[in-house]
Every structure is written in C-alpha cells, then in structure tokens.
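Two entries, shown back to back:
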Amino acid sequence: MLNLTPRLKIIADSIQGFDTVADIGADHAYLLINLTEKGRIKSAVATDVNSGPVEISGERIREHGLENKIEVRQGNGLEVINQGEAEVIVIAGMGGILICDILDKSVEVAESAKLLILQPMRDSEKVRKWLLEHGFDIIDEELVKDQDRIYEVIWAKPNGEAIEAKGLLFIGDKLIEKKHPLLAEFINRKTNELEKVMAALKDIDSDNCRERAEECRVMLTYYREVADWVR
C-alpha cells in the first residue's frame, strides 16, 4: 500500500462517499493510487500540463496495476476534464494565483463537481476570495504540518450564490473558529516573514517599496489581531 505524506494524507482522508476524483497537477498520482488501492474510489483522472509528470504518473499507475481505473491526461488545468466527470476535484501544491486561473478558465467544470479540495502554497486569500465570489461555500479548512512547513487545505462546494468577499482573508474563518492547534505557529511564521520584508524595505525610497511596506503593515496588524483572539 502506497503511503502518503501528511499533506496528501489529510486530503485523502477527507474523500469519503465519492466514486470519481480528478487530481490536477497530480504529483505522480500518489493520491489517486492510494485512494484506489484502498477501494475508496472507483475511477480517477490524473492530469498535468507537462509531459514529464504525465509519463511518471503513468508509470506509477502501471506499477500498481491500476491503469484500468486511473486515466492520465496531459493538458492545462481543468480543460481536459469534462463537466460532471469528477465528483471531487483536487488542486494541490500550486500557488493561489495559479489555482484561481485554473478555476477561472473552467468554471463550469468546477461547478459540476460536488467538492473542491484546494491546497494553495501561497496567496490563499486570493483562493478564498475567488470561491466566495463565484458561488462556492467554504465548508472547512485545515492546517497540516509536513516536514518543516505548515500547509493550508480548503474544502469547498458549489452553491450557486456568489457573494462579495469582504474583509481580509489571509486566514480562513474556519481555522479561526476552531482555534486550530497549529494556528498560533502558522501566524508566528507569517509575522516573522513580514517583519523581515518590512526591515528590508525600510531604507529604500520608492513608491513601489512604500506601497509594499504598507501592504505588509496591514497584513501584520491583521495577523497580530487574530493571534490575540486565538490565545
């Protein structure tokens, strides 16, 4: 049985009661192989925009004798997935801007799924904003520590009612509500990063640097306020 990293395991453990999954940018298809070997899903599609990962995914799938259950496709994002083909769509291990771009180009495919599982490596606030403004409910969020990094995972489902995304979305409401045990450490890492950026910008006199410093100041204030709340 193929073992998963903590980052992928938390995603796999959340896929319950679904038959079909599409993994976009499939990371050698480890997630889909694990789910299929455990009998948790009936069929799956692994995709990647580049030929190298597609070939490696195909090799891994054949090694596990699952080529009749997991199909590999090369293509850009969700453009190689048909509407209604996947009950669950996973987009993990990419930047938030790229995730939003993938969803933007195939909104109908995303809306036809019952569940989206998104794991942005950065710019998670942009993913939350996109989901809310395109009629998706954020039903849960988690933090998971994998080696020396803390990852954010977002679960969302379509509801057809787009709303204006108000306020700062640097941390998901679900994480704050549950006072997630990793949240304090996550915030501490973010504040340390911002303080370093602000220190580097301090002596540079340009409009761009002043604008960036102000953005960092707003984010820093936000993280500190959340940190006080979750203590």
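entry 2 starts here
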Amino acid sequence: MDDRVAERFRQAVPSVDFCSLRCVREHSEYLAVRQDVLEPVATSEDSGAMLTVYDGGGIGYSATSDLSLSGLRRAAEQARDWSRLSARYSVVDFSRLIVAPSQGEYASVELRPWPSVPLSEKLDLLHGECARLKTDSRIVDWEASLWYSGIDTLYLTADGGRVEQRFRYLVPMLSATANAGAETQTRTFGGRGYCRQGGLEVLDNVGFRAAAPRIAQEALQLLMAPNCPSGTMDVLLAPDQVILQVHESIGHPLELDRILGDERNYAGTSFVTPDMFGTYRYGSELLNVTFDPTIAEQFVSYGFDDDGQPARREYLIRDGILQRALGGLTSQTRANLPGVANARASSWNRPPIDRMANINLEPGEASLEEMIAAVERGIYMQTNCSWSIDDSRNKFQFGCERGQLIEGGRLTTLVKNPNYRGISATFWRSLKLVGDRNTLEIMGTPNCGKGEPNQVIRTGHAAPACLFANVEVFGGE
C-alpha cells in the first residue's frame, strides 16, 4: 500500500478518542468458456477507504474513494460528527473498545501468481477443460471458469497501529448439465466449493484438470437413475455437503450480532441464546468445530480482522458442547462473552460486522470405508444444490446433486434428487461417525450474504465426511 496514504491519514485525524483507517484495493478477473464459446472477459478495479471514529461513547463511519488529504480529512470529520450523534442512541459505550494498537502483516502464499501467466494460456486451459465436458450429445450445457481476486489492505490507527495484508483468491468451476426428454441433471465441481487462497497452483491442488470427464459422466448417469427414496435412514455426507451444513446450521447461528438480534430484519436471528455458551450440547461428543484463520491455503485465512484484532484458532464447539461465539470486539463488549477476531467487511465502503471466516469441522478417526460399512440402510450424498433454513437457523432442508444408497454396509444404487431435513441441534446430536484426515477437504464459498446494506463475502470451511443416524430423507418426486 502507498505510504502517502498513511501520511495523509496522520494529517487528517481529528481530535477524537479513537480513529482508524481501513484502505482496500481490489483487482478481480472472471474468465469463462461456456459451450466452447469464450464469454466476455470481466475485470474490475476498486479502491477506497473507510474511516472509523469513536468519540464520546459513540461510533461513526465515513467511506471515501478520494484518498487525497482533503478527501480523508472530510471523511474523518464526517465520521466524527456521526460518532457524536450516535452516542446518545448507541447500545454500546464505544469508549470501552479502545485497545492497544496492532502491528503486523499477512500475505497469501502464491506459488504461481495469476499475473505471471498470460491470458492466452489461461483461456486455452478453459477451452480445453470445457471441451472435455462435452462427452455426449445429451450434455446440453457445459462451462469452465476461473474467478481471481487480489486484495491489498492497510489498517492504520491514530495511535500508531499498522496492519498490512495481501490476499490472493482463486475460485475454479466446472459444470455439466445433461438432458433426456423431461429429465435434466447437473453435476458441478463442488459447486464453487474448491476455492482457495493462492495462485494457479490451486488448480492442481484441488484436482481441477482431472475432473471434467468424471463430472460429465456423473451428469449422464443421473439421467437414468431412480429418484431418491423417502424414509428415515442413516445419511453419510461428503465434505462438499458437510461444509454447507456447517455454514448454515453452525456458522450463521453462532454469529454473535445475530444472537443479539441485529439480523432480525434481514436474515433472521438465531436459536442460540447467550446463556447457552459453556453448557449447551450442540452435537454428539464427536462434534468439534473451530474458528481457524491459520491454514495458509484456506479461503479466509488472515492475520488480523478488519478491526485490526489479531486472529487465532479457537474452539467454537468442543466434544459437542458450545464454547464460543463468532463475535468481534464490539459484540464481545456488548454481550460480555468471549468471541473471535471475525469483524469483517466486504469492501472499503462497508463497516465490519460479525462474519464467519474459516469455520472447520475437525476430523475424527473413521475411514470412508468404515463409515459405509457401519450403515445397514442409508444414503451417501454429495455436493449441495439447494438450501433452505428458517429465520432462527434451526429447521432446515437441503438437497444434493448426487446420491448413492448404502445397503448392508455397501454402496449400491445411484439415485437422483436426494434431499434431507432436520433441526440443527437434533441433527448434530445424531452425528455417529466423523471421517479421518484422508476424507478431509479444504473448501469454502465465495458468496455468503449478510447485513443491511448487504455484504457478500467469502467464507472458508474444512470438513471430513460425516455419518448421521436416523435422518429424514426424501426424493424429488
């Protein structure tokens, strides 16, 4: 980041209790080849800064794309004015939030940087993978894409804090849709779940170059498969479905601002209440979930959150018992509960709010073969394709792209349109076996929405395969 911005900020700071600047510069490129035709190449550049002021017990924000001295000074004065206006209405005394200034830096590990590879080479790759999806005349839609983002951030405080972070993200995607008569089925490359930090080496690490023929073949197989049967049975979820289950029925319910009611208008509250922490049985003794920003290649690893707080690994759920909320400094102070460094903003023109980052289900000891062998009657489900959950993040219904029956401890019939439903804590208490590290996948999602005004943000999830007992399963008929 330009040191001139830091100097201008020092000159622009008004006389207040606390003032910070969060400067963000983002470059994104989206490349896609669909039905063997190159889509328009989409690129974007965006930069600006958010000024935050605490003064007189209130808080004020002002965002600006004008990084000149006059632009920063004007934003700082507006943030100061809003802070003084908000003091009389705020539920938090923001004078209590002032902390020691942070110093540090973080950078994504990037072995083959995106800019180092010519555009022609990246497009040749996508043309090749797209062509490998068209294996049959029944494949009616097929696409290969890459979405790259590079983000540089600088966080400064008036009392000497300075944090610089450099993020590089890659989201690869493959999709094949097959049709026969009235039947249409789609298989994808984890539904954009194989997103990572890093450069183009990510493609080899997640198996992108080997996936197209399998995806096309599985889409074709689903055309001829029977519908998923209905009934109560064991459900074995692949990691690319476990991550969605964690995201919706653990990640969102544990966001502390949601628990405190801040999302009531938009995306609902949570069935979790403040008195549950430390005692509530969220799942079986096999359930261990962490907030972990330390895994280099994971999608949302970082050194500091957007309030400049240092991030470290923490247990949210340990041996099935709820331990800690997903709440940044403001929510921790407001609720008097321990949290994590997860105050995050989607861009320079949004204030940080409590967001999931890397929320991981820790691996257990069972192999995939052992989990299958433990099932007398059940179903193995892969790759989320639909989700629905109530506004307290409690009752849910999820659908998957692909299912396979398990009978007598063996995988048998392929089935289409597999779905299951349940209640969050009841479902996690039915956790019967947790896969070992050989089943673990490091994944995530690039498009989690929350907040008013809306903030679409990245989240990371790592999870093994998991087996659940006595789940309500139903098909698509």
